[in-house]
């Protein structure tokens, strides 16, 4: 299954590396990545498309465990389609 | 105040009393500051042992274990010990020296990216580039290490930060967050599931010890009357001699434990994680059971086995809300009948010392405040199967990583944490050689750890698997050229005795119990002895192989 994660994290040393490493190690192949720091450099936002046979909840929980992570949302490719039709589309875990 | 002094002061403020480590170039400022500190530093002889000793200290005491190493090889030598702590959720803070910040990334002498290398096996890590961040970072590292599901945290300290000076230092004393309370709705669901079950079973894991929930678990079991099986890490969470304790489940679990799991209609998983060594073939594990999964880590819930009810939070709190009485007399009787029928037998009429019997006898003779720190292999499983434990803090074993060489440094850590305890390292002739240099640490500090070294002149567990699953094609498992371990111990200044016949066992046990200082007992056993029962890899727990009649 392919889905996209939106992650907001503290912009600490190695934060993005930790995020990508966790996804790889837990079996989520990274297909696309876009990341940027906030204006005050305090936070890092990343949008990552991944593919895996493992359930999306596994990625969500594993990313949420990272100390730097403030919020993680996940969009299913199929659900993004649904979202365009004004249907509920995202799982969200705020920490 | 210099950066290194800030670190030492911050450790003291965290209540640290003992640190395990090994000095070197980049961490010299920290060792200089140590001279003026009350911290007790234990000089190990290999950095891996520093991390493993910190692990043993933490597991036995429940406090955060601390280790130091220098940059480069010192830091990389810590990695196995850090990974060991990570896999078994042990709170640890590892502080590594690093080359000065201007040299980071230049391939300087003894520079490695330990921050990057350690990333997959730490709960979190810090590279402290500014002295202003030091005090807060150390406090934060301790909070992360001990909070929620504990784990190791690495703090990499560049040399220039360690020697820099700061006029005003603000030490952080923010209190730790309290663990999440269980969700009331989930608790109500769990109560109903327990009440309605006719064959419930508690599956207790290492998180019981971590949460300090031993009393709560025992109270729950006594109130509900539900039988218990434990994981390797959960051993001792219910006393070994408790009527309802069916023993360890899984690959080398007891027959009665594995049968109970396969027959139960409700599996109450308390702080365990459905490890592959526990479940065997996952699809056929507890096939008739609904699952209640209680854990502080939401990522463990439904990771491998879907939970019908999940209680995420502190099991110490959650267990108190589950006191209901299901009607399970028939089920309880069946479990207890199986327990009696499949109890281990210790008659073993050969000319060799029978390790399971010796361990059983030692464990019965020793007082309850006896810690056994295992290495990894056949002897580790014999300890799990045959030794009595009254509390989980007294059974130290490398479960997740399976680190040969854990036992001796782990025992050193536990003994330093609790000088009044009797600490025994049960090892094998393969494992002991992984960290045998720590005999020097025993001697230097006169640490009264007793080593019971079972010598089958082979890598026994690998040999057993080659015998059973690789058509007896033995490959690189012969250790018949082992050194004379008694002489090795004596060369380190540690007394040793050799046990070669069953009639020497009783006297050796007496020596272990009476000796005031360190002692090595070298026990020769039958090289053909195997660990039974055994669930073959990839098979269901119903497919246990058992010992052939002697």
Describe this structure in words.
The complex is a heterodimer of chains A (95) and B (550). Chain A has 95 residues and is an alpha+beta fold. Chain A has a single domain, classed as Alpha-Beta Plaits (2-Layer Sandwich), CATH 3.30.70.260. Chain A has a five-stranded antiparallel beta sheet with strand order 2-3-1-4-5. In chain A, strand 2 and strand 3 form a beta hairpin. The radius of gyration of chain A is 13 Å and the shape is globular. The two termini of chain A are 25 Å apart. In chain A, 24% of the residues are buried. About 12% of the residues of chain A have low confidence. With 550 residues, chain B is an alpha/beta fold. Chain B has three domains: 161 residues, 3-Layer(aba) Sandwich (Rossmann fold); 158 residues, TPP-binding domain (Rossmann fold); 170 residues, 3-Layer(aba) Sandwich (Rossmann fold), CATH 3.40.50.970. In chain B, 35% of the residues lie in helices and 16% in strands. Chain B contains 21 helices and 18 strands. In chain B, helix 2 links the parallel strand 1 and strand 2. In chain B, helix 11 runs antiparallel to helix 14. The radius of gyration of chain B is 24 Å and the shape is globular. Chain B starts with a helix and ends in a 26-residue tail after the last strand. The model of chain B has no long low-confidence stretch (mean pLDDT 96). The chains are: A alpha+beta (95), B alpha/beta (550). The interface between A and B is medium-sized, with 14 and 16 residues.
